[in-house]
Design goal:
alpha/beta, 6-stranded parallel β-sheet, 6 strands
């Protein structure tokens, strides 16, 4: 029970297909088994509810919220709902990520580029921005962002690759900036 009495938000707690076991669902089950109280967030209801069902089936309590991490109001509301439900926030686990088929750089559509950066980078900043006041007030917390090997490897989805590489740097900045507040970022 390494996470006993810890409160964790898992953003991207479902997956593209409601069935199966992706990173978000596996993280939710693992955190619950380790004793964490969970707030699960996802942009689609069927997948989110299936993750919550699996957690509850093992006897754990879980709260859920539909949220689009590219929407600042949703990120703010997610933090407020978590604080209201549990009184604190110990772990923010951002598992959201999506790539798009782009092909040759000269054929990249600006809207696809912006959507990839918003999903894979801006959403991480918005989640962190609204989690930090709670964590700083507690003088403790952990922020985890799921990156990708694509950030350092040759990978054909350039906007995804760029966003995940920038996410790695953003995490380093968060760790540097928030270490004095007792907050880690990985």
């Amino acid at each position: 029970m390494r996470l006993k009495d810890k409160v964790a938000i898992i953003a991207g707690a479902g997956q593209t297909e409601p069935d199966g076991m992706g990173n978000g669902r596996a993280t939710a089950l693992t955190y619950a088994r380790e004793g964490a109280k969970l707030m699960l967030a996802n942009r689609s209801s069927p997948s989110l509810e299936e993750t919550a069902r699996q957690v509850r089936a093992e006897g754990f309590t879980v709260e859920t919220m539909l949220a689009d991490i590219t929407d600042e109001a949703d990120c703010r509301d997610l933090m407020s709902a978590t604080a209201d439900a549990f009184g604190r926030l110990d772990i923010l686990h951002n598992n959201v990520g999506a790539g798009m088929v782009e092909g040759d750089t000269i054929n990249i559509e600006l809207t696809d580029w912006q959507a990839s950066l918003n999903c894979n980078l801006t959403g991480a900043m918005l989640l962190s921005k609204h989690a930090l006041p709670i964590m700083r007030a507690q003088q403790s917390g952990c922020i985890i962002h799921t990156s990708s090997i694509a950030s350092v490897a040759v990978y054909p989805l350039i906007a995804y690759k760029v966003a995940k590489a920038a996410l790695n740097e953003f995490c380093r900045w968060l760790a540097y900036e928030n270490g004095p507040h007792g907050i880690r970022c990985n």
